[in-house]
Amino acid sequence: MSFAIFTDTSANLPTPLLEQLGITAIPFSYYIDGNEFTCTDTDNFDGAAFYGSIRRGTVVSTSLISPGRYTEYMLPALQAGQDILFVGMSSGISGSYGAARLAAVQLREEFPERQIETVDSIGASLGEGLLAVRAAELREEGRSLSAVKEELDALRMKMCQVFTVDDLRHLRRTGRLSNAAAVVATVLNIKPLLKGNENGNIVSFAKVRGRRRSIEAIAEHYDRLVENAEEQTVGIAHADCPEDAELLAELLRRNNPPRDFLIVDYEPVTGSHVGPGALALFFLGSSDFRFEK
């Protein structure tokens, strides 16, 4: 391979796909009752059990990836003579990307002959993961590391991320909702619509009544914003609501069917912030959406 591609486990990519594309996912940690866990194999992650536990009151905390962990994973590739591209979780919701940049600075000093590039996805889950997949596709086409980074820096602004949650308290508790003060509590079956803005922050931009209507609203935003749907793999992530994920996919097929779908359970770190019942859609579309108020 011309260069090694790294991401973090927030990218939410299935293990077989990571192996097929030659992408390494560096693990976040999460904690339950003081015990540390990582999820490096999403195929064996029991989403129903994990989110069922949260529904019953289990509190999950998370931590950013340390510069030392980034170094630990990247060092063998550098020692083998490979350059590195890292695609990370949005700096707007986690300090982990900053730690990755710090590790890159240190590694450049140790390996001045190697090229080490980082990309802030300004996303999470498949909003990050689909960019890592695109990086692997471009590498396969023979594109240089610099060219791939340049394309990802442009594509990230076009990665539309639209989602809804069953209960805002998870995003409020972990401080991941940037405009929390402006959002009323989820009462009377009012469901928030959320997105990633131009800085990679999570913001609420609309509210609708009812779960079914929130899913339809996500599909309507897709129809309004998507570009070249027939060429895309569209991502759907859900936190233990597979039927809703399938309903959303069905709605998307009606007007602008994509080339393919990648439907995943939210991995536990990002999933603990959005909470059980979260449903998210990721696709390439108008970059204007990130700036819309």
Q: What can you see in these coordinates?
A:
It is a single chain. Helices cover 39% and strands 24% of the residues. It is an alpha/beta fold. The mean pLDDT is 93. It folds into 2 domains: 3-156, Rossmann fold (3-Layer(aba) Sandwich); 158-291, Hypothetical Protein Tm841, Chain: A,domain 3 (2-Layer Sandwich). The chain has helices at residues 15-21, 47-55, 67-79, 96-110, 126-140, 145-155, 169-173, 211-225, 242-255, 268-274, 288-291, and strands at 3-8, 23-26, 29-32, 35-37, 60-63, 83-88, 116-120, 159-164, 190-196, 202-209, 233-238, 260-265, 279-284. The strands form 3 sheets. Strands 10-9-8-13-11-12 form a 6-stranded mixed beta sheet, with helices on both faces.
Overall structural domain count: 2
Our estimate of the beta-strand percent is 15-25%
- Uncertain spans: none
The order of strands across the largest sheet is: 10-9-8-13-11-12
Instruction: Give average pLDDT, whole number.
Output: 93
Described by its quaternary structure, the protein is: single chain
- How many β-strand stretches? 13
- Radius of gyration from CA coordinates: 18 Å
C-alpha termini separation: 42 Å
In the CATH hierarchy, the third-tier topology of the largest domain is known as: Rossmann fold
Main pleated-sheet profile: 6 strands, mixed
Q: Which of globular, elongated, flat, extended, rod-shaped describes the shape?
A: globular
Summed up, the helix count is: 11
Strand/helix succession: EHEEEHEHEHEHHEHEEHEHEHEH
Would you state the CATH class of the largest domain? Alpha Beta
Helix share bin = 25-40%
CATH architecture of the largest domain: 3-Layer(aba) Sandwich
